[in-house]
Design a protein that fits this description.
Length: about 550
């Protein structure tokens, strides 16, 4: 009890760190009503990330890798909400409400921070817009649907260059998650393509980019080389010492200037601190909260941190704990014991854990593993991988479902059903490298573009002025309006003459505004007339508009 009321233990994050803390606390406080446990998480389920790559191929069902938190922690108050701020001085956190309900303002006596890390794409141009992250269930589902979508398009595409781009798949990051993702993607694309009449398997290209000289640097060299050889044999092109610099709609941009034409770029690097964690006034090391040997944050009594967001040293080796689920789970159990020991004025225990081993699946009945110093590869490692992770998957019902999925997967063909659940965004940012085609004459008018940076040239075709010099547009200018306002195909080709950033407004959103706001239609009709006028008149109009300010 604290001040005559129950002691409040608040856990932030329902991943391996947060959820296993709640589970351990429930067990330790079973007959103790002096404390209450609350957990705040964006989702109401735990994602079993080691099995996430198998969602890509559909070898396990979408919902089978996740377990409802309420079932695992029936005595914890769950807030399925997004945390907006953490105030360590006032000992309160705030989480946004939804459906018009009020936000949660929660106080605590003990706080466990287990918010993990995030995939950061902001540092490289075009990644936010075009690269697909691979961290949670939504990412895996989006990637699977995207792959089926490009296969559908490739099957009916006549232009060989466009088809090649559609059938090229690039994964950046040669660590565990990148390798497991590329292995599943490769298996799925090659097996799935057999269900399409016009896709030639020889046109499929799967590329793994890795910044170092050998993939899976966490593993002994022999196992990493085995993984590399096996993936190459299965058709994965491994590009070592190669860094991703950015992305455009149709290419992965590599450092050194090379472009790989692709419509599918997956990035498993880089990870960055959760913004909530980065904003905390605690001591940080590489974006992680520095905790003491008891996993407590020394500057703030009653505050603890575990998992990927904590910088904890292993008590035996003195080395920082790597960001893995096995460490997060062990830390969670120890932090729960230490919180209970603090409540009962008992001595706390230091955290020490030596990883039992490392395993990575290579898809299609192969894996690599190092367990208790024993190195295994191939089928035996794969069998071990499946057995161990099946045992670790929380919930008996999930275990049964996954085991059934695996058994069926041995005999059934890959499922190529595409679930289209996402709404296309009405407005988005796009980035183009110099010389890229933004749209071609004859294309359907699907987006209106506003240049925010760089220069775009518009080359007129049929219906436009033959032989007219290209129009050049810079920041603040708009293009692509004709096809949307007149509901016709593009009559010009737009190409970036420099590196270009634009805001793209979707056809439906644009036409909704146009239909309901007549002055805007007038403005665009005027712009179209000015642009289609002969060069001399256009010059006068442009000079006039410059005098009176740009009418656009
Ligand atoms: C594809 C993939 C495969 C992996 N495979 C393995 C493996 O085989 N073995 C292994 O040991 N490790 C593996 N890992 C690493 C492992 O998953 C992580 O180390 C582990 O999940 C860390 O646990 P955590 O609780 O610290 O963070 P997380 O599991 O990331 O949990 C953080 C939680 O905080 C929530 N959260 C974040 N911000 C907010 C907010 N603002 N409001 C509310 N909630 C929020 C998130 O929704 C999430 O539920 C893998 C990771 C990935 C991505």
């Amino acid at each position: 009890m604290t001040g005559g009321r129950r002691t409040r233990i608040l856990i932030l994050g329902g991943g391996f760190g947060g959820l296993y803390t709640a589970m351990a606390l429930e067990r330790l406080l079973k007959r103790d009503s002096s404390a209450e446990i609350a957990l705040v998480n964006k989702e109401n389920y735990l994602v079993f990330q080691p099995m996430l790559p198998e969602i890509i191929s559909g070898s396990i069902g979408i919902l089978d890798t996740i377990t409802p938190i309420r079932r695992l922690c029936p005595n914890t108050n769950l807030y399925t909400r997004t945390i907006e701020s953490i105030d360590l001085k006032r000992r309160r956190i705030r989480a946004a409400g939804s459906f018009g309900s009020q936000q949660s303002d929660l106080g605590y006596d003990h706080l466990v921070i287990a918010l993990g890390n995030v995939t950061s794409m902001a540092s490289q141009p075009g990644l936010c817009e075009y690269a697909l992250p691979f961290k949670n269930l939504g990412d895996a589902l989006t990637l699977r649907n995207h792959i089926i979508h490009v296969l559908e398009e490739a099957d009916i595409e006549r232009d060989a260059d466009v088809r090649r781009t559609l059938l090229t798949f690039v994964v950046a990051g040669g660590g565990f998650s990148g390798v497991e993702a590329v292995a599943e993607l490769n298996d799925f694309v090659r097996a799935g393509a057999t269900g399409f009449r016009n896709i030639n398997p020889a046109e499929i290209r799967v590329v793994l980019l890795h910044a170092g000289p050998l993939i899976l640097p966490e593993l002994p060299e022999g196992l990493a080389r085995f993984a590399q050889r096996l993936l190459a044999k299965r058709g994965v092109e491994i590009r070592l010492d190669t860094r991703l610099r950015g992305a455009t709609a149709g290419a992965a941009l590599l450092e050194g200037g090379e472009h790989i034409g692709t419509r599918t770029l997956v990035t498993t690097v880089p990870s960055a601190p959760n913004p909530l964690v980065a904003a905390l006034p605690c001591r940080m090391e590489r974006g992680r909260i520095v905790v003491d040997e008891y996993l407590a944050v020394p500057e703030y009594p009653g505050v603890w941190a575990v998992g990927d967001c904590a910088w904890a040293l292993d008590g035996t080796s003195g080395q920082p704990c790597p960001p893995t689920a096995q460490h997060a789970v062990r830390q969670a159990r120890r932090v729960a014991e230490n919180i209970v020991a603090t409540l009962r004025n008992q001595p706390r225990r230091a955290f020490a854990f030596q990883a039992l081993g490392k395993m990575g699946s290579l898809g299609h009945h192969a894996a690599v593993a190092e367990i208790f110093g024993l190195k295994l590869s191939g089928f035996l490692a794969w069998w071990l991988w499946r057995t161990i992770y099946l045992m670790k998957l929380p919930g008996l019902d999930r275990k049964i479902r996954v085991a059934t999925d695996w058994a069926l997967d041995l005999i059934l063909p890959p499922d190529i059903v595409q679930l289209r659940t996402e709404k296309s965004p009405g407005i988005r940012r796009e980035h183009f490298e110099p010389g890229e085609i933004i749209f071609r004459a004859g294309d359907r008018g699907d987006w209106l573009y506003i240049v925010t940076d760089g220069e775009v040239e518009l080359v007129q075709h049929e219906g436009g002025e033959a032989g007219a010099p290209p129009a050049r547009l810079g920041p603040g200018q708009v293009f692509g309006e004709l096809a949307l306002v007149r509901d016709q195909a593009r009559v010009a080709t737009a190409r970036s003459s420099t590196s270009v950033d634009v805001i793209a407004v979707g056809r439906e959103s644009f036409q909704t505004v146009l239909a309901n706001f007549p002055p805007l239609r007038g403005l665009f009709e005027e712009l179209i007339m000015m642009r289609s006028a002969p060069a001399g008149e256009r010059l006068i109009a442009s000079a006039e508009s410059n005098r009176g300010g740009d009418p656009r």
